[in-house]
Design a protein that fits this description.
This protein is of the alpha/beta class and about 425 residues long. It has two domains: about 10-70 and about 325-435, Aspartate Aminotransferase, domain 1, CATH 3.90.1150; about 75-325, Type I PLP-dependent aspartate aminotransferase-like (Major domain) (Aspartate Aminotransferase, domain 2, 3-Layer(aba) Sandwich), CATH 3.40.640. It contains 14 helices and 14 strands. It has helices at about 10-20, 75-85, 95-110, 120-135, 195-205, 230-240, 260-265, 290-295, 295-300, 310-325, 325-350, 375-380, 385-395, 415-435; strands at about 40-45, 50, 55-60, 115-120, 140-145, 190, 210-215, 245-250, 270-275, 285-290, 355-360, 365-370, 400, 410. Strands 4-10-9-8-7-5-6 form a seven-stranded mixed beta sheet, sandwiched between helices. It has a four-stranded mixed beta sheet with strand order 1-2-3-13. It has a three-stranded antiparallel beta sheet with strand order 11-12-14. The mean pLDDT is about 95. Bound molecules: 4'-deoxy-4'-aminopyridoxal-5'-phosphate. 4'-deoxy-4'-aminopyridoxal-5'-phosphate binds next to helix 4. The site of 4'-deoxy-4'-aminopyridoxal-5'-phosphate (PMP) has 15 residues, from helix 4. InterPro entries: Aminotrans_3 (IPR005814), Aminotrans_3_PPA_site (IPR049704), PyrdxlP-dep_Trfase (IPR015424), PyrdxlP-dep_Trfase_major (IPR015421), PyrdxlP-dep_Trfase_small (IPR015422).
Length: about 425
């Protein structure tokens, strides 16, 4: 029962239909498809807002799928980028700006003795797995159900398996994410449920695991905390069994704290990967960690390449972003993020909507139908997805854009007033879905 003062998205829908003649599906990532009521076409972003082709102003909690921790178009970043453009675009050589960006990463990330830049999270995750295999001489990798490490064949397994397709929790089947994916890449993969130290210990004890790769807090499917002591236990077990521990901090890095999840939880991985918030929307990623491992790119015969690695304009954006990420920024986001999470809990409770709002003030999820916080992907998969999509769709028609699948991302631009407007929209959306 959508009333006439709600926002409409007909021009976006028309443009997407029209653009299908050139771009497959009218989009450039499968994760931008199948959005209700339509994938959007955006004209401009500023602070917490996006402005679309229908003339709508939307409060944005996608934030480019996570990167924009400073909000859209922060002045410090756009000015740095404009200055860098005057000096050139790509050199196929080193530059002072990339060295400064690298210095900042090593200063901010606790485990970063050494690092390299890359172009996307998917790529640097591949670099991490290659280093781990080269360093250990082993081939097998442990990954966890619901954790996403990019779209390449060897890791796009069990990222969002239908629970009935995945077999028993204690011994999940590797479920392919895509047609055309080489099936035998699963032969080197062991899929386990996350947050279960006993199952991990038992598998590591077989002595054939090159690396454990995980999101230190599972922020891709939702925003799930590691159980107390879990990360410490994984760290200790990996050390004992000669396995490399990789934290995929593509979402958590520079978002949960200046030094990411590893700083927040005080646990040091051997390698970690970054992307998204590292450059507030520019295509930058990084792999960082133990110097002896990263130096295998120099003297260990391990190859890492990329035409656009450390592209100077993206590096200027990285420096400007990292310089802005002071501890006080996280405290400010925490105040507004907590207010939003608490406000949503209060609205759900008042309207008798069973939902869990969980995660971190900088990134959290809303799970309809759950009674208590999820511990792993299977818990989260029990949420009422249909009701949640009805909710995010109702929100969009009230000017608030939140991911249908995944987490809400906060930025420093989401202030008091923005949170208050969001909560008004939440109230309206809840009333609508209760009425429908
Ligand atoms: N790891 C995690 C945890 C991610 O969330 C993502 C992207 N959503 C990636 C890796 C892949 O990054 P990219 O999309 O930049 O390739």
């Amino acid at each position: 029962a959508i009333t006439s003062d709600l926002l409409s998205f007909t021009r976006s829908a028309e443009a997407i239909r029209h653009n299908c003649q050139w771009m497959a599906g009218g989009v450039n990532s499968n994760f931008r498809l199948n959005i209700s009521p339509t994938p959007l076409v955006i004209e401009r972003g500023e602070g917490p807002f996006l402005y679309d082709v229908d003339g709508n102003r939307l409060i944005d909690y996608y934030l480019g799928m996570g990167p924009m921790i400073l909000g859209h178009n922060p002045a410090a970043l756009t000015q740095a980028v404009k200055r860098q453009i005057d000096d050139g675009i790509l050199f196929g050589a080193q530059s002072a700006v990339e060295a400064e960006a690298a210095r900042l990463v090593c200063q901010m990330v606790p485990s970063a003795e050494r690092m390299r830049f890359g172009g996307s999270g998917s790529e640097v995750d591949q670099a991490a797995l290659r280093l781990a295999r080269a360093a250990t001489g082993r081939r097998n990798i442990i990954k966890f159900e619901g954790h996403y490490h990019g779209w390449f064949d060897n890791v796009l397994w069990s990222t969002a398996p239908a629970p009935d397709a995945a077999g028993p929790r204690e011994a999940p089947k590797a479920v392919a994410g895509s047609k055309g994916q080489l099936a035998d890449t699963a032969d080197t993969l062991v899929v386990l449920p996350w947050n279960d130290p006993e199952l991990l210990e038992a598998r590591l004890a077989q002595g054939d695991i090159a690396a454990v790769i995980m999101e230190a807090a599972m922020c891709n499917a939702g925003a799930v905390h590691p159980l107390p002591g879990y990360l410490e236990g994984v760290r200790e077990a990996c050390t004992r069994h000669g396995t490399i521990l990789i934290f995929d901090e593509v979402i958590t890095g520079f978002r949960l704290a200046p030094g990411g999840a590893q700083e927040l939880f005080g646990v040091t991985p051997d390698l970690s990967t970054f992307g998204k918030a590292i450059a507030n929307g520019f295509p930058v990623a990084a792999i960082a960690g133990r110097a002896d491992l990263l130096d295998m790119f120099v003297s260990g015969g391990v190859v890492h390449g990329g035409t656009y690695n450390a592209q100077p304009i993206a590096m200027a954006a990285t420096v400007a972003t990292l310089q802005s990420l002071k501890p006080s920024l996280y405290e400010e986001i925490a105040v507004n993020g907590t207010r939003l999470m608490d406000g949503m809990r209060e609205i759900f409770a008042r309207h008798g909507v069973k939902a869990v709002v969980e995660g971190f003030p900088q990134v959290f999820h809303v799970a309809f139908g759950l009674e208590q916080p999820a511990r792993d992907y299977r818990d989260l998969a029990r949420m009422n997805r249909q009701a949640y999509v009805a909710f995010t769709t109702a929100l969009l028609h009230r000017g608030v854009r939140a991911l249908e699948r995944g987490a809400w991302f906060m930025s420093i631009a989401h202030d008091d007033a923005v949170v208050a407007s969001t909560l008004e929209a939440v109230e309206g959306a809840v009333k609508q879905i209760r009425a429908d």
